[in-house]
Amino acid sequence: MKRTMKLLPPIALVGALALVPVTASSFAAADTTNYQELEKFMSVYERVKANYVEPVDDHTLIKGAIDGMLAALDPHSAYSEGAEFDQLKSTTDGNYGGLGLSVSIEDGAVKVIAPTETISRTSMASWHTD
After folding, report:
1. Which of 11, 91, 101, 129 is most buried when burial is the number of CB atoms within 10 A of its CB?
2. 57, 79, 60: which is closest to 69 by C-alpha?
């Protein structure tokens, strides 16, 4: 019994090591496929850079590739950067200025048409002055 207990850890180790090539080869196959696809992308990218009718800057090509990648997934996904991203953040995180009202100009005066978000009577009373 003691002899079996002594042999158990080395046997388990050998068994685990035997699985390493199988696991590594499946990862290598996935990486090979990814690299082949990226090589295809780079080939097209280089051809466009070298042979397009007009010179094209790198940023335009990369941004277009990202936009196309996301558009292939669904119509709602998009990539934003810089000022466009900052604008998106300010409109989606709820931290933007304004009263939450739709207004118009009527006879030279500002007229409230309707609230654009739910405003409680308490909050309306706090800024309403007669």
Report:
1. 101
2. 79
Torsions phi, psi of 25, nearest 5? -70, -35
Q: What angle do CA 112, 118, 122 make, to 5 degrees?
A: 85
Smallest CA-to-CA distance from 59 within 74, 79, 76 is with 79
- From first to last of the 130 residues of the chain, give the pLDDT tens digit: 555 555 555 555 556 656 666 555 556 666 788 889 999 999 999 999 999 999 999 999 999 999 999 999 998 888 888 888 888 777 766 544 566 667 778 888 877 777 766 555 555 555 555 4
Please state the φ and ψ torsions of residue 77, each to the nearest 5 degrees. Answer: -90, 140
Type of residue at 15: G
**Domain-by-domain residue ranges, the chain?**
2-78, 98-130
Q: Tell me the sheet residues that pair with 102.
A: 114
Contacts of 104 (CB under 8 A, 6+ apart): 110, 111, 113
Query: Residues with Cβ < 8 Å from 112, sequence gap 6 or more?
Result: 101, 102, 103
